[in-house]
Design goal:
- This protein is of the alpha/beta class and 225 residues long.
- The chain is built from six helices and eight strands.
- It has one domain.
- Helix content is 37%, strand content 35%.
- Helix 4 crosses helix 6.
- The longest helix is centred in the C-terminal third of the chain and has 22 residues.
């Protein structure tokens, strides 16, 4: 059994382990991020106020000069907290481990939104990668794809659905790029991972859009149960 950590994943490794199908649609093929879909998501006055406060903290900051911990605390985590609904909570530094027929994946997700019970995260359905800089800098997509695979496996063990829909995003400073994934044939030797990427959204100018996408993702999953 091959054991792989998220941080060491490469495109070549992913293509060897799974049937990877990528679509960089921008706003074209993913219904969650179209203007019509987002128009259906209503933000409360309280949420709008929280966004405005967040924006005031960021507007004059040179965000690309801040370290990752500061960016996470000031820009990313507060947005995720606003998106919490019912028992869906945001967690930081989430350990993920999942076993497939031919390989195992494990490591730490920078953040996750998922169903929380009695002070623990049951299963995540949105995972977040904060892009590292300096000597640790690498393409965040491959790490995110690994985390999406692990999240799909954990959800599959819980609900047994043949097609697992999970979500992720990677952040660079205050920019968010969302990924929708469908994972099939999870019990087979070579699972199928089909992903769609959104365009980039900046908190300074697209804060409402980012929050609406997060809220829609959470609502979609709550509807599944």
């Amino acid at each position: 059994m091959e054991r792989i950590t998220f941080s060491t994943l490469t495109l070549g490794t992913l293509r060897r382990l799974v049937d990877l199908r990528e679509t960089d649609d921008g706003e074209g093929g993913w219904q969650f991020v179209t203007e019509n879909a987002l128009a259906e998501v209503v933000l409360s006055d309280r949420e709008l106020l929280q966004l405005e406060i967040m924006r005031s903290y960021l507007i004059n900051e040179k965000l690309h000069l801040l370290n990752e911990a500061t960016l996470w605390a000031r820009a990313i985590y507060p947005m995720l907290i606003i998106a919490e609904q019912k028992s869906v909570r945001v967690w930081s530094e989430v350990a993920l481990s999942a076993s497939f027929a031919k390989f195992e994946l494990d490591g730490i997700a920078d953040g996750a939104l998922g169903w929380s019970v009695a002070g623990r995260l049951e299963v995540p359905y949105l995972v977040i990668v904060e892009t590292k800089r300096g000597i640790e800098n690498q393409n965040p997509l491959f790490q995110l794809y690994g985390q999406l695979l692990a999240a799909a496996r954990l959800n599959w063990e819980r609900d047994g659905l043949e097609v697992q829909e999970v979500f992720g995003c990677y952040t660079i400073a205050d920019s968010w790029t969302f990924v929708r994934a469908e994972v099939r044939s999870i019990a087979d030797d070579r699972p199928i991972l089909q992903v769609q990427l959104s365009r980039e959204f900046s908190e300074k100018s697209d804060g409402e859009i980012i929050l609406k996408i997060l809220k829609r993702i959470v609502a979609e999953r709550l509807a599944v149960g």
